[in-house]
């Protein structure tokens, strides 16, 4: 953030009041809590004030944040009365109806920018400088209309500034001579400030430094509570305090382990004796230094926070990331208001319930939830010893019954009003996201005393099923400088997750959590679906088909199978999460997750894998389909969905086979054990300290034994599980299915839902022959899938067929082999043009054309026609950036084609988008994008792109031209395409339009449809990744050929095989334009292509006086 030093002057030269009647009186550049507009949105605003004695008509006045475009937004005919405070919302909503609040067509940068008010004659009426204003503060005149500007911590929108408290400047934060981090020796920390007149106040106990706390603040806490039945609350209060100090000399930063423990001596449970987890030794301690600057008449500086760790190991002190949390300690530990202690809530509960066991029944301070319990603290995050995040956060206690554990889970909130609206760092290395709004620091739930990774391990186990789950990163925590053990950073399954992953905006997401309780949105759709299941049998295929439009049955199937196999007995009446996008109807062509159906997510599986009970034969299948179950954990309502689905014969078969598939892959014993060992190895270096700090796990040997429990479960569970499946569905026995291929470089076999390739979890690098366990008389589906350059020939073994996909009902063990043969690959679809929106596209500039970024022949051109005559306009014109085509920072991988970008994978950081802005129609003209490209040499043309609506249009209108001038939609299956708020793939197929093929003058046009296309609210439709694909038309090459050659693979990489039965064969290899590049005798029936560039070539083979010419492709 740009720093602003104390303003010792009043900017009188900038603000000239002579001849001014309307002035900019107050302005906010970052509003998140102050006031909302009529839509309920927190938007920036400018307040104008009429200093004169007469009303002034503002019609024709301009307001702008671009000095070269004074009439960026033009006022309507609004009369501002003498002494009136007029609020103008700078929201980019562009509203000019004087009967409603006025909104500009631009937003104000939070970093500060010049705002100018210009008269119709071009004279500047007033101007506001580019000054950085803290969030939710304003900068304005005091008194109204005067030349003196001050900062207002409490803004006065639409009201007088005369009575508000204002400050002439904002102090910058103190400067630390050494950044926080890990050090191997002690040092003196110098804190300074560029203004020698400031007073620096600091703390080393994690509290907020305050000049009002130099004498310290005390709070009370307890270390004993009436846990046992019949006990009463004691009056044995203890006292601690936190304190600020005035800086004068360098602070000693050292290893503080030898110093007495502080907050780690406080009870965090309702135990009568917490000594079993309160350390009786000096724990490792870092030093948190927090400082701020004070000066009379100026706003106090923001707090700067740094965390230091000194030990002989330096940055190698910990093997996993480190989090330092600091806050006023009474926010956590105060008896009355602390959220980390049993506190007064437990004592009050015990007084009202003297004879009730506390376990699972008691109320405590740490059970408080909701925004009112959120505490503000500071968050420093270190990876490999280096700080990568440093920001204020909101903190709450997280979890259910495990809040009662001594080491509690925390939930962290990034908030704009606290300085940063996101955690802007790739917290989870395996995720493709760099930004998160909320994080959970989890104590491993019911697994707290055992492996400390079981839930995260289970999520990783089923990651490739597509089930939504929570990413994981173990970390070490320090609280106010004291070692606080390990907590697992977890991705939170909330509205931000679904927006990040599926593009579902907050208004559209519906989430039901434990017990089908509303977490976001409405449950009306779910309740209607649930009622349908209650009242209709799914044995009727029509009913089952209907329910598949309401819920993704395959997703639910995998969810049930996972929880059943891992023996999750804290489910299904609890630990559930169902979600969907709120749509008016099922949208089968929508992107995954956007079709309006309910789906599930894996959540809190800590109770799985036997939970140290060595009971691996629990019949969780029967448990999950039981009638009349108890209120917890499997009440009857919680088993209804699976019971109803299993009434349908096709689903029952799918469920049985998918269960077998997953046990043969995802849940294969060796895979489960290896993955568990991987998770254990990451945290093993930290387990001893974790146990010493929290008495959990119970001991290091217990932790090792908890891994053995998982290993034993992994070995035994499949046997029991198959027994349960056979009993449930009346199956007599298991059978072994052995699958093979004649050559694993030619193709592979798919059985039911799994590909027998090394990419499938649990399948070895050299998978064939492969054997899996299936069930007697349960039909399985086998599919032979050839690789490029090969074709399926036939099945051999216990099945003989030439059909690539067969259904086989096994009466016993069986073995089959898929046989593949070389095949000339037919002409396949390939990109012939691509328009990629990356950083090379000019930003903030109306565009008229874009050349293709990839083409196989002549360059393609995207031309833009605006509905506004005179487009493009210069930046002084009122229509600047209206009805325009511009770059937009909105990347997507939809329709991205690596082969059209040097085979580079999609990287969102370098990608952008393309926007068409309102209005879309004006005075009989309309916005249109016209793509001109040649299809010479290609047929079966398909034009594709990604697009989304941002409150601007309902749909797109597609047509084309084959003569370069006349456009038509004749022959198109669908020329009117509806838009949604999320990116979707759109493709227009021209394969049935003969004139679209082999045409050097082909054009495609995109226009817009909607109810109000003349609207000018600054909204847009955004596009990305335009492409034209086609199939190359075979070359007509005269051939003297009665020869028989088999060429494979084609396309080829380094070696081309030429199978033949002739004694002597010569070859010549030509470029596509006929230039010979190599030739000679064909040796070993192979041609080396490794020295050739990628492209199309002609291969001429000659033997016995005859020749044959074939087209080959070098990849």
Automatic annotation (TrEMBL):
Keywords: Signal. It comes from the Bacteria. PROSITE patterns: LTD. The keyword tRNA-binding does not apply. InterPro entries: Bacterial_rp_domain (IPR044060), Fn3_assoc_repeat (IPR026876), Lamin_tail_dom (IPR001322), Lamin_tail_dom_sf (IPR036415), Secre_tail (IPR026444), Spore_coat_CotH_CotH2/3/7 (IPR014867). Gene3D superfamilies: Lamin Tail domain (2.60.40.1260). Residues 1-19 form the signal peptide. The keyword Signal applies. Pfam families: CotH, Flg_new_2, Fn3_assoc, LTD, Por_Secre_tail. Residues 15-141 form the LTD domain. This is Putative secreted protein (Por secretion system target). It comes from Flavobacterium lacus.
């Amino acid at each position: 953030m740009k720093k602003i030093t104390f303003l010792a002057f009043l900017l009188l030269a900038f603000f000239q009041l002579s001849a001014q009647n309307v002035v900019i009186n107050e302005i906010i550049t970052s509003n998140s809590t102050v006031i909302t507009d009529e839509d309920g949105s927190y938007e920036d605003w400018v307040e104008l004030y009429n200093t004169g004695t007469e009303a002034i008509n503002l019609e024709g006045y301009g307001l702008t944040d671009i000095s070269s475009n004074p009439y960026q937004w033009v006022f309507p005919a609004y009369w501002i009365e003498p002494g009136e405070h007029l609020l103008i919302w700078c929201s980019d909503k562009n509203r000019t109806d004087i009967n409603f609040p006025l909104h500009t067509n631009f937003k104000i940068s939070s970093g500060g920018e010049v705002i100018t008010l210009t008269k119709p004659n071009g004279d500047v009426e007033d101007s506001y400088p580019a000054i950085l204003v803290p969030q939710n503060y304003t900068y304005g005149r005091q008194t109204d209309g005067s030349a003196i500007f001050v900062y207002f911590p409490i803004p006065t929108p639409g009201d007088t500034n005369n009575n508000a408290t204002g400050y002439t400047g904002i102090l910058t934060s103190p400067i630390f001579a050494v950044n926080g981090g890990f050090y191997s020796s002690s040092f003196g920390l110098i804190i300074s400030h560029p203004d020698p007149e400031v007073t620096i106040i600091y703390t080393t106990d994690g509290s907020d430094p305050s000049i009002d706390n130099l004498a310290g603040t005390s709070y009370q806490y307890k270390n004993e509570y009436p846990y046992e039945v019949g006990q009463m609350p004691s009056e044995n209060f203890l006292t601690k305090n936190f304190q600020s100090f005035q800086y004068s000399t360098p602070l000693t930063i050292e290893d503080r382990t030898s110093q007495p423990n502080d907050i780690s001596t406080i009870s965090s449970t309702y135990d009568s004796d917490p000594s079993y987890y309160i350390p009786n030794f000096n724990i490792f301690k870092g030093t948190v230094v927090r400082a701020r600057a004070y000066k009379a008449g100026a706003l106090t500086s923001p707090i700067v926070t740094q965390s230091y760790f000194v030990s002989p190991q330096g940055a190698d002190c910990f093997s996993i990331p480190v989090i330092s949390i600091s806050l006023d300690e009474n926010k956590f530990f105060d008896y009355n208001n602390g959220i980390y202690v049993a506190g007064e809530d437990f004592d009050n509960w015990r007084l009202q319930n003297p004879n009730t066991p506390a376990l699972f029944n008691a109320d405590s301070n740490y059970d408080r939830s909701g925004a009112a319990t959120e505490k503000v603290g500071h968050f420093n995050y270190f990876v490999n010893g280096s700080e990568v995040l440093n920001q204020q956060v909101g903190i709450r206690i997280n979890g259910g019954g495990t809040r009662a554990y001594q080491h509690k889970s925390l939930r962290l909130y990034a908030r704009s009003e606290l300085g940063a609206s996101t955690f802007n760092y790739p917290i989870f290395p395996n995720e493709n996201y760099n930004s998160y709004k909320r994080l959970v620091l989890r104590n491993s739930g019911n697994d707290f005393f055992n492996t400390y990774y079981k839930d995260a391990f289970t999520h990783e186990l089923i990651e490739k099923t597509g089930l939504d789950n929570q990413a994981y990163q173990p970390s070490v925590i320090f609280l106010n400088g004291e070692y606080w053990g390990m907590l697992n950073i977890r991705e939170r399954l909330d509205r931000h997750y679904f927006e990040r992953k599926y593009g579902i905006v907050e208004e559209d997401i519906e989430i039901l959590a434990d017990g089908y309780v509303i977490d976001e949105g409405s449950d009306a759709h779910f309740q209607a679906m649930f009622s349908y299941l209650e009242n209709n049998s799914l044995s009727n295929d029509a009913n089952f088909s209907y329910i598949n439009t309401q819920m993704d049955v395959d997703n639910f199937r995998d969810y049930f199978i996972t929880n059943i196999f891992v023996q999750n007995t804290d489910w299904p009446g609890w630990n559930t999460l169902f979600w969907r996008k709120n749509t008016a109807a099922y949208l089968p062509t929508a992107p995954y997750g956007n079709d309006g159906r309910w789906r599930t997510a894996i959540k809190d599986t800590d109770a799985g894998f036997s939970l140290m009970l060595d009971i691996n034969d629990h019949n969780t299948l029967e448990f999950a389909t039981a009638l009349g179950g108890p209120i917890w954990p499997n009440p009857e309502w919680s088993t209804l969905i699976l019971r109803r689905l299993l009434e349908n014969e096709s689903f029952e078969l799918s469920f049985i086979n998918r269960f077998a598939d997953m046990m043969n892959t995802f849940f294969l014993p060796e895979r489960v054990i290896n993955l568990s060992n991987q998770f254990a190895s990451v945290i093993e270096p930290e387990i001893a300290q974790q146990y010493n700090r929290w008495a959990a796990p119970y001991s290091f040997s217990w932790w090792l034994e908890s891994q053995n429990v998982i290993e034993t479960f992994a070995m035994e569970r499949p046997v029991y599980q198959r027994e349960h499946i056979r009993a449930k569905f009346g199956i007599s026995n298991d059978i072994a299915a052995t699958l093979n291929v004649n050559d694993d470089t030619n193709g592979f076999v798919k059985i039911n839902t799994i590909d027998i390739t090394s990419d499938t979890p649990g399948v070895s690098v050299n998978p064939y022959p492969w054997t899996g366990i299936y069930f007697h008389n349960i039909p399985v589906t086998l599919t032979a899938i050839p690789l490029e350059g090969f074709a399926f020939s036939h099945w051999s073994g216990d099945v003989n067929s030439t059909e690539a996909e067969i259904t086989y009902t096994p009466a016993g063990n069986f073995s089959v082999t898929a046989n593949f043969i070389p095949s000339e690959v037919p002409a396949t679809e390939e990109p012939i043009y691509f328009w990629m929106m990356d950083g090379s596209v000019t930003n903030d500039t109306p565009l008229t054309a874009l050349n293709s970024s990839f083409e196989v022949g002549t360059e393609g051109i995207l031309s833009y026609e605006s509905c506004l005559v005179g487009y493009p306009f210069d930046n002084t014109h009122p229509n600047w950036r209206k009805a325009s085509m511009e770059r937009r920072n909105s990347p997507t991988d939809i329709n991205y084609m690596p082969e059209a970008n040097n085979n580079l994978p999609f990287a969102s950081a370098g990608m952008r988008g393309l926007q068409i802005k309102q209005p879309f129609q004006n005075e009989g003209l309309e916005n249109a994008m016209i793509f001109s490209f040649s299809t010479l040499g290609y047929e079966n043309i398909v034009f594709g792109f990604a697009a989304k609506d941002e409150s601007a249009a309902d749909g797109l209108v597609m047509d084309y031209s084959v003569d370069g001038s006349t456009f038509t939609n004749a022959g198109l299956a669908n020329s009117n395409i509806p838009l949604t708020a999320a990116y979707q793939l759109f493709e227009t197929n021209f394969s049935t339009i003969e004139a679209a093929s082999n045409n050097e003058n082909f054009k495609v046009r995109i226009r817009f449809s909607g109810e109000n296309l003349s609207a000018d609210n600054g909204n847009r439709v955004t596009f990305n990744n335009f492409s034209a694909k086609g199939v190359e038309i075979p070359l007509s090459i005269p051939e003297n050929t009665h020869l028989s050659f088999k060429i494979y693979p084609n396309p080829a990489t380094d070696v081309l095989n030429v199978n033949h039965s002739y004694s002597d064969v010569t070859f010549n290899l030509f470029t596509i334009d006929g230039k010979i590049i190599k030739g000679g005798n064909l040796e070993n029936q192979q041609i080396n292509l490794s020295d050739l560039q990628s492209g199309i070539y002609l291969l001429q083979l000659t033997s016995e006086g005859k020749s044959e010419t074939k087209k080959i492709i070098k990849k």
